[in-house]
Amino acid sequence: MALLDCCLYLLLIVLTGYTLLSAIHHSSRMTIVQLFGLGPAVGAGTTGLLLFWASLIGFAPSRSVLAIIGVLTLASLLVMKKKHRLARINILASDWEKGDVWIVVPLVVTAAALAMIAAGALSTPLVEWDAFAIWGFKAKVLTHEALRPTPAYFHDLTLSYSHLDYPLMVPFLTAGAYAAMGTVDDQTGKLVSVFLDVLIVPMVYLGLRWKLRRLPAACLSAILAMLPVMFRYGGVGCADLPLAMFYAGSILYVARWIDQQQWPDLILAILFSAFAAFTKNEGTILALMNGAVLLGFGLWVGRRRAWVGAVVFFAGLLAMDAAWLIWNRGLPRTHEDYGSKLLSSVLVTHLPRLKEIIPAMLVQIAEFQVWGLLWIMAGVLALLGWRALARPYVLAMWILLVMQLMIYALAYSVTPWDLTTLMPMTMDRLLLHTVPAVIFLAGWHWAEMETKRSIAGSTLR
User: Fold this and answer.
1) What is the 3-state secondary structure (H, E, C) of the chain?
2) With 90 as the cut, is the pLDDT of residue 342 above it?
């Protein structure tokens, strides 16, 4: 019964996402991947924020709160259906290209990998330390107490090991599952973690398909699903893969806005950036970097629409995360507190540590048992398709990736922990956040190679 209740909760998330997508892309064509990838991702982020806002008012996650969300969702769907504004699923035979029949191979590989991740996660209790002591612990607190008045947990320094100031997206989504089930069930609740973590694959596929043919896009997506690091962190209950998933959506739609400047893309860039900022502390920095790149390209292009879009981005991001930023200000900062250290003189005095950090990062990306040949493959494709650097959206993605790696290196430089102990324990999780950008760049450089080959072939004929 608990499993069925949890599945109904996930269905609510999917319907919420489809409703929002229909509002953003009303009456437009939607692919199956958008329906089962983009929609649930939008729905997950939205549901997490809605549960947070309800808790701030004084209502902890409960079946009543979920029922209200469900009623509002269904009412919105009925209204949009009556006005013919629902996004449609439309599959055309003309969309398929020669050789696409082979897509069944990467699809089977991807499905098998995700099935193994799900089976491994759901067959074990909450065993990952961070999942048990941070994200799962917070979910239990939020299940039993609303954020108004603030629970004693968030100011109890004896519990500081659970990082009192960490964002609450994953804990609230888990608490929503507990509310739907009517009980705190760690093992069944991991279904939420599996759901969030596997969404990174269709999200990345959407970004690849934007510029790349179906078959190579499916192959790169299969490579993502088969990464050893995916099996390490998939479904364990931590927030790193959800952050990577939301970040994938944010940078995809930042790139699309830079390339096409369509308002729906900007709206989705705002949504996914806000979701990332509410998932982990790193997400706030990544969201601000998205805005900085949008503003930089807006000023570079010089078009009014471009720089106005950057202003709208920052305004939307602030509006969505303002409640969290205000409520979070009063929480005690314990242990690392990287935010304040990166903005202080501590950063300058610790810069020499980069001589140790940067080589360790280079060694990490070459670890086959963690990344396979992902980074090497991306580097080779970037060299072969170097002409893609002339594309503004590709250049923007490279800037975002370099900035992300730089920020993570600087965070290591100011850490109070011993680097020889900390880096082997955490570096694979931090670099996991960069995977969407790495694969997008691999695919978009690949697409540029195919474009040039096609032009050369037509010239010879």
Assistant:
1) CHHHHHHHHHHHHHHHHHHHHHHHCCCCEECHHHHHHHHHHHHHHHHHHHHHHHHHHCCCCCHHHHHHHHHHHHHHHHHHHHCCCCCEECCCHHHCCCCHHHHHHHHHHHHHHHHHHHHHHHCCCCCCHHHHHHHHHHHHHHHHCCCCCCCHHHHCHHHHHHCCCCCCHHHHHHHHHHHHHCCCCHHHHHHHHHHHHHCHHHHHHHHHHCCCCHHHHHHHHHHHHCCHHHHHHCCCCCCHHHHHHHHHHHHHHHHHHHHHCCHHHHHHHHHHHHHHHCCCHHHHHHHHHHHHHHHHHHHHHCCHHHHHHHHHHHHHHHHHHHHHHHHHCCCCCCCCCHHHHHCCCHHHHCHHHHHHHHHHHHHHHCCHHHHCCHHHHHHHHHHHCHHHHHCHHHHHHHHHHHHHHHHHHHHHHHCCCCHHHHHHHHHHHHHHCCHHHHHHHHHHHHHHHHHHHHHHHHHHC
2) no
Higher-confidence position of 461 and 36: 36
Q: Tokens in use for 233?
A: 């962190």
Of 122-126, 258-262, 444-448, the least confident: 122-126
Interatomic CA distance for residues 1 and 330, integer angstroms = 40
Q: Report whether 243 contacts 283 (CB < 8 A).
A: yes
Query: Is 106 within 8 Å of 47 (Cβ atoms)?
Result: no
Reading the block at residue 67, the tokens are: 């029922």
Per-residue pLDDT at 459:
41
pTM exceeds cut of 0.90: yes
Query: Mean of the per-residue pLDDT values for the chain?
Result: 91
> pLDDT tens digits for 388-417?
999 999 999 999 999 999 999 999 998 888
Q: pLDDT at position 416, please?
A: 83
Q: Residue 453 has what pLDDT?
A: 59
Least confident range from 172-181, 195-204, 309-318, 324-333: namely: 324-333
